Amino acid sequence: RSSQGRMLSYFGNS
Amino acid sequence: MLELRLVQGSLLKKVLDAMRELVNDANFDCSATGFSLQAMDSSHVALVALLLRSEGFEHYRCDRNLSMGMNLNNMSKMLRCAGNDDIITIKADDGTDSVTFMFESPNQDKIADFEMKLMDIDSEHLGIPDAEYQAIVRMPSSEFARICKDLSSIGDTVVISVTKEGVKFSTAGDIGTANIVCRQNKTVDKPEEATIIEMQEPVSLTFALRYLNSFTKATPLSDTVTISLSSELPVVVEYKIAEMGYIRYYLAPKIEE
Question: pLDDT tens digits, residue range B133-174?
């Protein structure tokens, strides 16, 4: 099973 | 006061066609350096970043930094009323809650004004650090679009692997599997037909094809596409916008559990 990553776990709020 | 005059109005039409499937509402940021946008799709899995530098406009007046919230579908509806050879001017007066798109035909015998209400969109601006990528593939954009389209008829996800052999796109589904390998090829007539692979180290990541197919809507903007991969980061799919800037798509990988 693979889960879809999310943008916010890579790029924080600037 | 904002007045941006783009002689190659067709570029703006293509930019909207390249974003409106992925993003519904977004803020366009105008500053002295240029006209930009950064927005995530509704599921926060993908992000699009647009930059049109001020030098690329025939006339660029932006008295103070301005952020204009727009519904991209509505904006696209208006821009589709512009001819492909029209000059497009984007205008907004200070303090007003609308933006005007002016279309001028090449011989100035037809001038159209479309005014659209602006929206309040509270979008979070993400910090995207410059990164070193383990592998960077530059290839014809039509080739990449064809691969994504073909593989999505077989499976939902694609494994993109870069080794010294080249870049491999693999998928599997109910009816079977598919593997496409593209090798580096610099011996081509035109530079935009080359496939160039810079690999610091082998990398392999899995992505949802649905998003990659949305990204390839930017194909009309550039003959080539650059795909930057690193095992710890979202993939970056970049289409340069001739002499003006770029449209970059970021997509978070699927994580094997």
Answer: 999 999 999 999 999 999 999 999 999 999 998 999 999 999
- Would you give the DSSP letter of residue B144? H
- Residue A3: list chain B partners with CB under 8 A: 254-255, 257
Residues 6+ apart with CB under 8 A from B221: B11, B14, B15, B18, B239, B240, B241, B247
Place of tokens 């949305």: B214
Q: Is the pLDDT score of B210 beyond 80?
A: yes
Task: Tell me the one-letter amino acid at B110.
Answer: K
CB B35 within 8 A of CB B246: no
* Contact (Cβ atoms closer than 8 angstroms) between residue B157 and residue A2: yes
| Contact criterion met (CB < 8 Å) for A12 and B127 | yes
Q: What is the C-alpha to C-alpha distance for residues B254 and A1, in angstroms, rounded to an integer?
A: 10
Question: Which chain B residues are Cβ-neighbours of A5 within 8 angstroms?
Answer: 45, 234, 252-255
Cβ of A4 within 8 Å of Cβ of B257? The answer is no
